[in-house]
Amino acid sequence: MERDVLAREIIDTCLEMTRLGLNQGTAGNISVRYQGGMLITPTGTPYEHLTEANIVFVDADGQFEEGKIPSSEWRFHQAVYQARPEANAVVHNHAVHCTAVSILNRPIPAIHYMIAVGGGNSIPCAPYATFGSKKLSEHVFEVMKDRKATLLQHHGLIACEENLQKALWLAHEVEVLARLYLTTLAIVDPVPVLPDEEIAIVLEKFKSYGLRIED
Ligand SMILES: C[C@H](O)[C@@H](O)[C@@H](O)C(=O)COP(=O)(O)O
Ligand SMILES: [Zn+2]
After folding, report:
1. CATH 3.90.226.10: does it fit domain 3-208?
2. Does ipTM come in above 0.95?
3. Mean of per-residue pLDDT scores for the chain
4. Where does substrate bind (predicted)?
5. Of the listed 9, 73, 161, 175, which one is catalytic?
């Protein structure tokens, strides 16, 4: 796909992420895999101000275009693409319920069968490291080898998928799961969970189930 078209899709996805209430201000960032590297949102720029020209190309060696500064989190986006060859889009946000669970430093357990959207029986929580650091990208790489989404301790959420629409859909589903978890956790701890055997069945069914939108 043309660079400008992808850049427009990134911006539209950013705006939709805010519209869905998943993010605010200059928090969060979005990328797509592109020509061996990625196209990614610039650092510290409110989404409403973005134009196609602001989207930054970062190559496989982490080099980026002169005059542009990519998201401070380009390293963990790169780590996701390395950990998950099928992923073409990465979404990061500070969604309130995901971030609240991350502060508790807990994974979201199998409280609902939709947990399987993340590719397993939980949404894990990657250990804390300073934003933008290599250490954080190393944690993300380890966790994302087994999942399509992870919480980041004391920080937020990362979700990846084969395209932007699906990545945003996944991020939204995980935020709903986080909200359900916190709601039930206020009543009972530990929260009842589905057995691994049932999640294995759902994971199998999800191979032919998911968001259906034409690219
Ligand atoms: C401090 C940053 O907001 C950090 O939280 C980062 O993870 C983020 O979400 C937005 O940073 P960029 O604007 O650099 O993408
Ligand atoms: Zn962040």
Report:
1. no
2. yes
3. 96
4. 28-29, 43-44, 71-72
5. 73
